[in-house]
Amino acid sequence: MNRRNEWRNTLKIANEDLKKRGYRISVNDREDKGFFKCVIYKGGKKVETYAENYYEDELDELVNDVWSYVKHEMK
Asked: Which helix (H) or strand (E) holds 23?
């Protein structure tokens, strides 16, 4: 599995789990090509931008970190 599919799959699984808590996370490109940020939504409203300046090869780690953060810190 390539890196892009790997983090997209992790994001899909994370969102299936977080949906039960009313949360969703999304990974977006920044204006600077090659950088990404992860945004946390609750009830369709943006509540936090968790991290910025991640390269694509770090996105699986970023998604896992945000998933864990939402599950344990944002109840």
From this structure: strand 23-29
Cα angle 21-35-40, degrees, rounded to a multiple of 5: 15
Cα separation, 24 vs 52, whole angstroms:
17
Distance of CA 34 to the CA centre of its chain: 16
How far are the Cα atoms of 42, 54, 58 from residue 17, in angstroms, in the given order? Answer: 13, 23, 21
Q: What is the pTM of this model?
A: 0.81
What is the pLDDT confidence band of residue 57, given thresholds at 50, 70 and 90?
A: confident
Going from the N-terminus, what domains does the chain have, and what CATH number goes with each? 3-73 (3.30.160)
Burial of 27 (0-12, 13-18, 19+ CB in 10 A): buried
